[in-house]
Automatic annotation (TrEMBL):
Protein name according to UniProt: Aromatic ring-hydroxylating dioxygenase subunit alpha
Gene Ontology molecular function: 2 iron, 2 sulfur cluster binding; dioxygenase activity; iron ion binding
Ranges of residues in domain Rieske: 47-151
UniProt keyword Iron present: yes
CDD domains assigned: RHO_alpha_C_GbcA-like, Rieske_RO_Alpha_N
UniProt superkingdom: Bacteria
InterPro entries, sorted: Rieske_2Fe-2S (IPR017941), Rieske_2Fe-2S_sf (IPR036922), Ring_hydroxy_dOase_asu_C_dom (IPR015879), Rng_hydr_dOase-A (IPR001663)
A Pfam cross-reference name: Rieske
Keyword annotations from UniProtKB, A to Z: 2Fe-2S, Dioxygenase, Iron, Iron-sulfur, Metal-binding, Oxidoreductase
Needed co-factor(s): Fe cation
Amino acid sequence: MLDRSESSLASLLARRIPGYTLEAPFYTSPEIFAADMEAIFEQHWIYVGVEPDVPEPGDVVTVDIGRNSILIVRDDDMGVRAYHNVCRHRGARLVLEEKTTVGNLVCRYHSWTYNLEGDLIHAEHMGENFDRSCHGLKSVHIRSLEGLLFICLAEEPPEDFDGMAAVMAPYIAPHNIRETKIAYQHDLIEPGNWKLTMENNRECYHCGANHPELTVPLFAYGFGFAPEELDDLEREQAERYACLVTAEHTDWERMGIPSRCQEHLDDMVTGYRAERLPLDGAGESHTLDTRAASKKRLGSLPSDKMGALHFWTQPNSWHHFMGDHVVTFSVIPLDANHSLLRTKWLVHKDAVEGVDYDLENLIGVWMATNQQDSDLVGYCQKGATSPAYQPGPYSPHTEMLVDKFCNWYIKRMLAWHGPTRVTAKA
């Protein structure tokens, strides 16, 4: 609950100190969680999956976001559509499974039937004056960014998605997500508020002490460091990394693969960041031997040694694109204290498990890293409930991207819940 002395969500938003963590109620209050769902997850473009989730006509995947259940459907013309998972008769859920394949969408309550274009095509006993055309499924805005699926629940979605997509499409297109398949999906319930999961992702300050698997292929230097605090060996490694970035960006872009940093984390409604970064060792993949996990190279990539394209979107996703596979992550809030982290590993659609890739090798680094991060998020959630908690300062060297996430969040909440809007009282 919000402490009554804090007055309102608007007051908490107005007094946020840039460069510091948020006040405890932002992580613990059910009222602020409800405000987050209204202002963030019901108003912005939310990453929810990939086109290979629905590879064939009639394939359906469901995604639950707060009080909303959404159907994503591949239609007969191979288009991807999204609808509210609500029958227009008496509101029953149409699809109860996470994934299924259908000819039409049939409500199991009274058999109202909808085609894949959302039209009501069958409804018995409704009388001769009943107009089926007025009772089609309610559509949801959906966009595919080179195979990454985003939905928006607002009546009028943010218009700047097109600007982000125009910049990012050339970065993502060479990996050809539409010609991949989902080799594995893992759902992890993290014991923390969704913002703590996102904040944890936006920095690598914690990586050296907590991610022994991830830091084999990944350079933590790519996410900031304090030069004056490095010892001689660390300085040598940081300089080697900086040279690699310069050299490989030049090489990749000469091959026609955009690589340089694009960052709009807190100056756009549809905030994002992207950069192709070198990997250590063989430089091929997020594996413990740093070599490609799959023998089938993706898309039009000219080499296995393509580093890893990092792509982040506000408010709920991050992605790693490599020469042999892609890993996508989405965060869906469940309540003030729990979040769903959904991870998908994508390989070439013709890759065969046990022949072209070993599943444990493919998923090993991120399965370990996700659990380590979940534990860290849980520690922070417990700490935020303590009376001793107070906002602490972010490192200006290693947590500047966390601060940008919080800047974006505060701006978007103020736009929806500011002084001229209804505030969430205690």
